[in-house]
Amino acid sequence: MAEIEKRTSLMSLFGAFAKVGLFTFGGGMAMLPLLQKEMIAKRAWCTDEELLDYFAVAQCTPGIIAVNTATFVGYKQRGILGGILATFGVVFPSFVIIAGLSSLLSLWMDNAYLIKAFAGIRVAVCALILTSLYKLSRKAIVDVLTLVIFLIVAVLELWLAVSPLIIVPSTIALGIAYHFILSGKKEAAI
Amino acid sequence: MTYLLLFWEFFRTGILAVGGGLATLPFLFDMGQRHPDWFTLSEFTNMIAVSESTPGPIGINMATYVGCNTAGILGGLLATLGLIAPSIIIILLISRIMEAFKQSKLVKDIFHILRAAVMGLLLYSLWKVASLTVVSDGQVLWIPLGLCLVFTGLIIIFKKVHPIVFIALGALAGILLL
């Protein structure tokens, strides 16, 4: 219906996602409330259910959740070009801010106070990662199999320093094997 | 060559980092070990802090920061484009087959196992950050460790408080105590 009335302009896709990018600190789930406001309440670009679906798929496909969600919404509004522009929108503010900050930071990196401040910030980051790890683990480690996989990967990483570039593809292969063993068992039972 | 290499390294990360944000950390650690001239472990930990306290998705911030530090603005641009290119391509493909993808039992089974493996990778990232912060050469650094426990408690109690508040408190505590 919206397509007949008026097509969403590519600029407004870029602009709306740039706003989401600018006001999301920390990424991931932090942008859900913002997306709900900008995409659903203000513009009716998608429904609540669609947004949650996008999030679900975005979380289990490669890449950054914000980027994946932007591509989904943009594609739905204006096809491939829309998907690309929405994605550029969501990364634009970060890019400008970090590009500016990185040159300043390397200039200030020898300052004693800054070194101390960053030592303290690292402690806080440690605590932040610890708590998000705990939160995530309750969704990821749900049965004996996932616990075993987690422990094996942890040991491979902590003691043998195996590259994640090896771990992730092997785990995907394992998942495919697991799927066919499961469906094989079901058929045998029948 | 550095430009191409930056694009390729982040493109690869974009393909393999499932779960967004923090999921990119293990790949970046690995990247740092293979390219010691790009960034050191302590620079990297500072980057995490900067990314957490500036707007935008963490992965994008990291890519921009690493790229800019290594090869200037163009490096930042190529690293960022490298990171998002696989997402754009994959999601555009999935958009067309969204329903079938969501209901596929194969996809569900793969992610059931993959999520657990990702947790193992993240534990390693946590250990790398911790080994620079609260432990040093096998010696426990008691003040940072105590501070870390206090922060963990605060984050659990004040769930709604934005991470940037804890980052700011961390900076303050660092200047006063460390």
CA(first)-CA(last) distance of chain A: 47 Å
Main interface pair? A-B, 95 and 101 residues
- The proportion of residues in beta strands of chain B is under 5%
Order of helices and strands of chain A: HHHHHHHH
What form of chain B results from the Cα inertia axes? globular
Number of helices of chain B: 8
Spatial separation of the terminal alpha carbons of chain B: 41 Å
Keywords:
heterodimer; A: 190 residues; mainly alpha; 3 domains; 8 helices; 82% helix; 0% strand; flat; B: 178 residues; two-stranded antiparallel ribbon; 80% helix; 2% strand; globular
Describe the structure in your own words.
The complex is a heterodimer of chains A (190) and B (178). Chain A has 190 residues and is mostly helical. Helices cover 82% and strands 0% of the residues of chain A. Chain A folds into three domains: 1-108, no CATH class; 113-140; 141-190, no CATH class. Chain A has helices at 2-5, 10-23, 32-41, 48-59, 65-108, 112-140, 144-160, 164-189. In chain B, helix 1 (2-16) packs antiparallel against helix 2, helix 3 crosses helix 4 and helix 7 (142-157) runs antiparallel to helix 8 (163-177). The longest helix of chain B is centred in the middle third of the chain and has 39 residues, at 58-96. Chain B has a domain at 2-103. Chain B has helices at 2-16, 24-34, 41-52, 58-96, 98-103, 105-133, 142-157, 163-177, and strands at 135-136, 139-140. With 178 residues, chain B is mostly helical. The N and C termini of chain B lie far apart (41 Å). Chains A and B meet through helix 2, helix 4, helix 5, helix 6 and helix 7 of A and helix 1, helix 2, helix 3, helix 4 and helix 5 of B.
